[in-house]
Design a protein that fits this description.
Helices cover about 45% and strands about 15% of the residues. It is an alpha/beta fold. It has three domains: about 45 residues, lambda repressor-like DNA-binding domains (434 Repressor (Amino-terminal Domain), Orthogonal Bundle), CATH 1.10.260.40; about 130 residues, Response regulator (Rossmann fold, 3-Layer(aba) Sandwich), CATH 3.40.50.2300; about 150 residues, 3-Layer(aba) Sandwich (Rossmann fold), CATH 3.40.50.2300. Strands 6, 7, 8, 9, 10, 11 and 12 form a seven-stranded mixed sheet that branches. Strands 2-1-3-4-5 form a five-stranded parallel sheet, sandwiched between helices. Strand 1, helix 5 and strand 2 form a beta-alpha-beta unit. Helix 1 packs across helix 2, helix 6 runs parallel beside helix 7 and helix 8 crosses helix 9.
Amino acid sequence: MRPTTKDLAKAAGVSLATVDRVLNKRPGVRKKTVEAVKKAIEEIGFVRNLSAANLAKSRQYRFRFLLPRRGDLFIAELRDRIFETNIGLAAEGMEITHQEISQVDPHLIAQTLLKIRRDEVDGIALMAPESPQVRDAAIRLQEKGVHVVHLISGQQKLSDMDFVGIDNHAAGATAARLIGRFVCGLQGKVMVVSETMNARDSLERRRGFDQVLTRDYPNLTALPSLETHGDEARAYEIISNMINNSPDIVAAYVMSSEARLPLNAVARQTDPQTLTVIAHELTDRTRKALVSGEVDAVIAQDSGHLVRSSVRLLRARCDKREIMRSQEQIRIEILIQENLLPAQCALRSNDHGSVANSFDD
């Protein structure tokens, strides 16, 4: 059986109260006594049960997700998973909430971060475009003792902050490989659409996409990136102009996490089934597009895993524990019509159905 704190106190020849002070690094314990407890820990193989200790102390963890205010279907999926996780982990002393923040103004995002108080929040998961203002505000927030995890798109160059999400360079490269295979040697152009190229995830995806398409598929030419800025009228205008001015488009790559507006615009301009179309993230819109054949493949990252991984990382930072990196690695999922869950395929005959998708993590 695992040694207990009573066993540790006995082995060190001290009281339980002294063991508690040493384990929690409280003052008032002689150096000789601390060394005796540490030696006893090594001798009996004592491993502290942090969950039990936190439960005994009624430890509360307060984590907050900061999500774009102008989000669409994918952000709605994240909000649902946050709500679900909050319910599931309430018994473990966790309070998991979300807050909407500006998506386009880095100064407003920075101001929001700087207003967060250590006595209100233990950690945040931040989904925001990269900028010097956001970077500096996140650093100052960590200096105040609030742990920060960058979610999906963020400051990946900051080694002392955790990042949760897929390898976006690899995701873009994967999209290029799929399009290159699916067009079956056709000569033509590829339309590339993003919500904004100010986001690191879009930049990395575009780099990976261009690298593979240019190197391995000389029959295909990637067009300049189109930015919808989350605006329906703009999405229709820029996509229709591109299609009208480039009749030799054979494929489309929707890079952003929110694919609804670009897919709707493409569907209004042309028969999507005449194009090879690759999109990101499994939402109600992309799921139906897969089932109908409007989209050939979806490159996805499980929203539930994103939320749970963020929470585990923040808790590990609060507890000063080592992180199991393999568990927090978000996998790139390639979904096609044939590998959707059976219940999801039922949407062929029921456009009003909604099926939750989950993967083991």
